[in-house]
Amino acid sequence: MPRKLLTSMLLVGLLGALAWMPLRHAGWPPHAAAPAADAAARSDAPFPAVASSVAGATLRPMSARAVPALSPLRRGFEDSTDLFAYSRELMALAAAGDADAMWLLSLVQDQCAGFAADPIGYAQDTRVIAGLGLSNGNAMLSARQRIQQRCARFVPQDGFSLPTLINQRTLAARAGSLAAEASLLAMDQPLQEGDDYRRDLVVRVLESGDPFAYLAIAPAMGTVGSGRRDTLGEVSGSELSEIAWRIASCRLGMDCSPAGTLMTNYCVNGGICTQDESQDFTTFARDAGYPRQGADNVDEMVGTLLSHTGVDG
Hints:
Layout: H1 3-17, H2 22-25, H3 36-41, H4 72-79, H5 83-95, H6 99-117, H7 119-130, H8 137-150, H9 162-175, H10 178-186, H11 195-208, H12 211-217, H13 239-251, H14 261-270, H15 281-289, H16 295-306
Helix pairs in contact: 1-14, 5-6, 6-7, 6-9, 7-8, 8-14, 9-10, 10-11, 10-12, 12-13, 13-16
């Protein structure tokens, strides 16, 4: 197989696996799970807020750097070994209007959707994978086991589905979460239509220095936006630009470590796992995500992005 074609296939596969949206990449139809209202009826239901209506909500744009990149609350998403318990903490804050807690609730839902849909089937699949002897099998098993441990207390009745995820993120965005607003654009569900809004949102994300917002908007800055390169010049509209936004999020504080959520998600949901379990996202992307001749381009784009945040490129 020609090297150029192989590199292109690796790049496309990497980007597809890194979409940060397990609900869209795990074979879920929009209404595969029980309705959110059914989950709300449970006495221990973790996401009653998901069923809330977004109608009439007032958009409260988040100011630049309004949320520390590595606040204790955000750090808890990566560090928690029990996301059900963590979600209870978030619920109390979300009920009081904390936009970042609302956003983090959506990340819990997204992370656990595949497991919660069928916990028994998920465990069986993990056992099957263990017996296949895949070249990346150890990394895949480790990633699946992390999700199984962290999401162990969620069940199908929690109603994790794409519509409830969009609703949760819309609530968060209207409460002021820039990351949620960016993710909605990447999901083709923007709060507002029009190029002016899109450009304004990209600039707000760019200037915020928020790693969650950078990662959330990355898919919209790739080939999906190839017809709108004027959005941010050379740092949009290509496969490499999408990777650059992701690497920039790592530089800003996103957990891109081998056992972090980013690496775990694309390994489990996309089936693309590093054979070297010591690699973080940036290292793996350089090895498998783009050709050597693209490295300088990616470095230049990352530097351009970070120049707006005060972080050295």
